[in-house]
Amino acid sequence: MSFYTPYWVKRIAIASAFLCTATTTLAIDSLRISLDDILAKSLINSTYVEEAHLQLKEKKIQVAQRKMELLPEVSVRASASYATNMPVYDHGLFNKPSQHEVIHYLYDSGADFYLNLYNGHRDRMNIQSAKLEQEMATIDWKASQAKIKMDVCNLYLDLLRCYLHRQLIVTDIHDQKEQLKEVKDRYTAGVVLHSDVLRIELELSKRELLLIQIGNDIQAANRQLQLITGIEEEIVPIARPLDKIRVDYDETIKAAKEQAFIMQKSEQEVQLKKLAVKQAKANYLPKVGLTGTFTFANPQVFLYPYNDSWYNLGIVGLKLNIPVSAIYLNRNVVRAAQVIYDKEEVKHHHEAEILENKLLQAYLDYKLAKEEQTVRLKNVDLAKENARIIKNRYFKSAALVTDLLDADMQYLQTLFEVESSRIAVQKHYYFIEFLKGTI
C-alpha cells in the first residue's frame, strides 16, 4: 500500500488551494489583472513618463519657435523731445554768445523692417537641429515607457512567483498535517517514536513560518506595484505562459540595430554633430537681408533746407554683411566641430558593440533558464518518486524520520524551483525585448 499522495491529486489540491486563495483575496477588495493591463495603467500614472512627455512638448515648441524666426522682423518706434536754443560763441568763449534759433519740439515715429534673404542657411539648419532634438526627446519618452514596463514586468513576475510559491506551500502544509496525523496514530499504536512526531511538528512549524514570509513578500511587491500603477486594491496576477515563444538570436540582433532606443538616440546624436559641422562652416558665408524704414516725423531735418513741417519718408534696400574676420576666427571652430563629429561616430559604433554584447549575454541567460526549466521539470518527477519510496519505507520502519523529512523538503524545493525557473524564463524574455526596444 502506498502512503504517498498521487501526483495528479497534489496538482488538483494545488489548483483548489489557488482558487480558494484567489476567491478569498477578491473578497477583501482585490483586483485580478493581467500583465498587459497593469502595464497600461503604469504608463498612465508614471511621473517619470510624464516628465519625458513634457520634455518632448518643450522640444516641439522650440521647433515651432525656430520656424517663426524665418518671418521678417518688424518694429515700430515713437519719440517726442524738446531742444533748447543753441548758443554760438562767434566772438570767442569768453564773450557773450549769440543765440541760434532752433525748432524746439521734435517728434519722430515710424516702423522698421528686416527680412533675411540669405545667411548661409543658418536658420534652416537651426530648424533641422531643433527637429533632431525633438526626435531625441521622442526616443527618450519611448525609452522611459520601456523602462517603466521593464520595472513593472519584474515586479509583476516577482509577485506572481510569490503567489505560486504560496499555493505550493499551502498545499504542502496540508499534506504535512495529514502525514503528521498518520504519524501520531502510529505513535499511539507504539509503532514510531515520540521524537518522530516532534520532528515533523517542527518541520511543519518551519513551513508555516515560510508561508508568513511569502505573505510579507506579496505585500511588499503589491505595495511597489500600487505606487507605480495607482491601483488601490490588492493586485492578484494572472499567469501568462510563454512556452510557445521562441527567441532567435540573429533576428534579435537585426531588430535591435534598428529599434533599440540606445541605437536610435546615438544615430540622432551623430546627425546632430554632423549638422553642427555645417553650421560652423556657415560662419564663413555672407548675410544678405531686405531692410525697410518708414518715418513720419516733425521737423524735417533729413534734407536741407530744414523746416518745421510734418513729413513722411520710406526707405527700402538690401543689406550685405561679409564676415571677413571669420577666415581666421572661425577656423578652429570648424576643426573642433569636426573632431566632435568624428568622436560621436566612434561612440555610435561602440554603443552598437555594447548592445550586441548585452544581447548575447541576455540570450545566453535565456537559453540557460530554458534548460534549467527542462531539467527541473524532470527533477520534480524524480523527487516525487523518491519521496514516495522513502515514505513507504518509513511507514514500514525501514527508513528514519530524517529521511522522510528530507525527501519531502526536496520535493517541495523542486516544485519551488520549477515555478522560479518559469518566472526566470519570462524575465529574461522581457529583458531581451527591452534591449531590442520592442517591449
Automatic annotation (TrEMBL):
Cellular compartments per GO CC: cell outer membrane; efflux pump complex
Pfam families named in the record: OEP
Signal peptide boundaries: 1-27
UniProt xrefs under InterPro entries: OMP_efflux (IPR003423), TolC-like (IPR051906)
Keyword Secreted: no
Top-level lineage group: Bacteria
Protein name: Outer membrane protein TolC
Molecular function terms from GO: efflux transmembrane transporter activity; porin activity
Alphabetical UniProt keywords: Cell outer membrane, Membrane, Signal, Transmembrane, Transmembrane beta strand, Transport
Family to which this protein belongs: Belongs to the outer membrane factor (OMF) (TC 1.B.17) family.
Cellular compartment(s): Cell outer membrane
